[in-house]
What we know:
2 copies of one chain form a homodimer.
Chain A: H1 5-20, H2 28-35, H3 39-51, E1 55-58, E2 64-67, H4 76-83, H5 110-126, H6 129-133
Antiparallel strand pairs in A: 1-2
The structure holds a DNA duplex.
Amino acid sequence: MKLSTKGRYAVMAMADLAHHSNGRPVALAEVADRQEISLSYLEQLFGRLRRGGLVSSVRGPGGGYMLAREAGEMRIADIILAVDEPIKATRCTPGSPTGCHSHKGRCLTHDLWEELGNQIYLYLSSVTLADVCERRVLGTSRMFFGSARSERPAAVAAS
Amino acid sequence: MKLSTKGRYAVMAMADLAHHSNGRPVALAEVADRQEISLSYLEQLFGRLRRGGLVSSVRGPGGGYMLAREAGEMRIADIILAVDEPIKATRCTPGSPTGCHSHKGRCLTHDLWEELGNQIYLYLSSVTLADVCERRVLGTSRMFFGSARSERPAAVAAS
DNA sequence: GCAATCCCGATTGCGCTGGTCGGATAGCCG
DNA sequence: CGGCTATCCGACCAGCGCAATCGGGATTGC
Lengths: 159, 159
């Protein structure tokens, strides 16, 4: 799972779609305008979303894109995976010559990054597009990692 | 919180330090050799780690770096924050002209990324360097996001 | 047929990251 | 002192991936 603005844009656009589509297809130009994303770039993203089966398209005048499923059935993780192709894991490809620097199989930190990837994936899988649209995202955490100190978490960003 | 290979290298190096230091300072050259990271690059990273108070340095022959605290008291999140400066959040700086595209205050997805950041931070705060050294990282998740479907999570990567 | 709209490949500008180089400073050992 | 080892530090660089653009083509409603 890769976290970049590409994925963010895709989620923003999908949220916009879910929000403004009343059964009718929505033209990308509208979305581009509302979300302030360049049209051509959106076209790129929606090409992938369509090929991933997340949206369906209607061509010609009055056409546009529609969600392929209910917003409540659309997980954020799916959207990101559709536009941000998986990319090779950390660098630890077991078997490869440079993978995890030769000796001793996996490096010490391998498990850590793997598990972190799982955490991120699980979280993004637990949130649906409907959740985002209705601002039902906060308050899901806490109390699980009870031991965490009370410091200020910085927001996430990907380069 | 930014996830890049810089942070990964830092954690690898710190783990190496925790593992091979028996009260004595460890020279960077050793770490560079074992972890296959370029020495000059490590110097850069340890400069930040030292300024962040995570390691202490001893100069001169026989010198090197030592952990400033117990490995069990060193949280992974601290290490990453020390080397990967926080960077501006998502792009949504409330009050800024371009922040979260003008109208309506925060954009719909703002809360999502914020909460994702919290999730990542909480996880990385719940793991200490000692955990990593003794491979005590797996099995902490599951059962919380019980609803997640059984798909293959891809490993995390940052550009 | 015309305009709206999706579709698609090729290309580009640019920031960021990982990495290098050269040199300064500090401590140890003859 | 004068060299040796090591940390320290700032400037510099090169490649790459991402965000974004462009030009053109296919479809369909009116």
